Amino acid sequence: MELRYGAEHALDIAIDALILPIARSADGPIWPAVMSVLTPSLFAELIKLAKDAHFGGKIATTLTVPTLGLLPAKRLILTGIGETENLKPNALVRAAGAAVRAAWDAGATDVACALPSAEWGIVPSEALKLFAIGATLAGYRFDDYRGFAAPEVTTRRNVDTVQFVSTELSNEQAKTALRRANAIGRGVGIARDLANEPASTLTPEAFAQRAQTIAAENGLEIEILDLDALAGIGAAATLSVGSGSVNGPRLIRLSYEPEGNQADGRVVGLVGKAITFDTGGYSIKPYEGMLTMKVDMAGGAAVLGAMSALRELDCAVAVEATICAAENMISGTAFRPGDVLKGMNGVTMEVLSTDAEGRLVLADGLVDTARRGATELIDLATLTGAAVVALGDGTTALFANDDGLADRLLVSAAETGERMWRLPLIDELEPRIEGEVADIKNTGGRAGGAITAALFLRHFSEGLPWAHLDIAGSARQEEATSLGPKGATGVGVRTLLHYLTGV
Ligand code: BES
Ligand code: MN
Ligand code: ZN
Fold first, then answer.
1. Residue 254, SS3?
2. Is pTM beyond 0.85 here?
3. How large is the average pLDDT for residues 342-371?
4. Ligand 1 pocket, 272 CB below 6 A?
5. 151 with 257, same domain?
6. 192 and 138, same structural domain?
7. Is the same domain home to 153 and 240?
8. CA distance linking residue 304 with residue 270, whole number of Å
9. Quick one: 442 and 325 in the same domain?
């Protein structure tokens, strides 16, 4: 989807569809000033139509109105942005997303979109950025494998171009806003593409190759550790988890250095779980549990998606990222329950369940990232079904050993609308993961399963401020929303980018 900007009057544009944002008050919709150019009778008809359809300007509700030759645009798509007092940035993202979906439903491929304007106290460049993000997210499709069902051969063609219009923005401001939105949208798209890709093609090696391409295109340093290199750094846990697969594990190191000198020496460490497929190993998953396990690399995908956008967003802080890629399979060489693994920091781990593999590869990823100079650590992982039981679908569980870090991440999550809720690291549960023959064991039983998983990871936080994002419930959505189709959500990318760049 191509995003453009033009300093035009919205209602003058001849186009498939024109999106108009509508605010809301207690008494109903608040019509934007741009509509004052309509003839009074047309405006009155429109108000009546909206009333009949119960369109009140609520966030992400839309109303599509054919204009039947009365306006240059073939149809108007009214999209609600909700109440403008305390307007959350994400409301604008969702409103734009819903409108693009409505345009798609109406068969419109070229769309113009007026921006919610200063009349409602909205900064025009922010409005453009947020609307452009919403349009990109909503326009995302994963059609690589469709044949007769591909959009080009059906009537379900995607929206090709969205031209944003406003008379309140300089070209320079518009360019910056679109550049930022494109970088963010592309980052989320990278994460979604990876997590939607079947595990037969997205092996650890293939993941590493994609990372290589993305690093080269976006000014990042990259180093890929293969089996020998993993043995060289003592990453026994990663090697064990990957030992059952012919597609061997990889540890992917990415580095971002900001332009110019950075005074404070801060280095943010990002660590992503990238189990390209999780059968559970010998602690095998049942059919239902295994069905969606190509998504088990979504943490690593979010890390790569975020890294891809740092240069474009002029990120001022250095970032060291690690993606722990392995495939958890069953074979004569696979690891077993009862095995003991030695972590890179000397902590020994007893494998009770080969299905609790994520924390094993993350143990190596966390220590490796700390050793490369990270001054704080954030890991993302589809780690536990227990996190889904605790918080339901669509919410990320946050754990942290540092309140400041936790609060800053919660702020970024709230700003971007990626729902996140903090859960406690309960010290009293630590005995649940005490090992029988090793220091710790890799499951603490069913009760508090997300917490004991986090307590396990804490043993590898190396004395640094550390946060753990369990995205098991938020990495995939079972139904399409205004921000994207069924499947991978790319969750984490926007929160990380906001945290790192403020954008
Ligand atoms: N990848 C799964 C967790 C998961 C579940 C992700 C549902 C996405 C959706 C993880 O490796 C796993 O299997 N966890 C086990 C841990 C248990 C054996 C201690 C779980 O949650 O059941
Ligand atoms: Mn597992
Ligand atoms: Zn897993």
1. strand
2. yes
3. 99
4. no
5. no
6. no
7. no
8. 10
9. yes
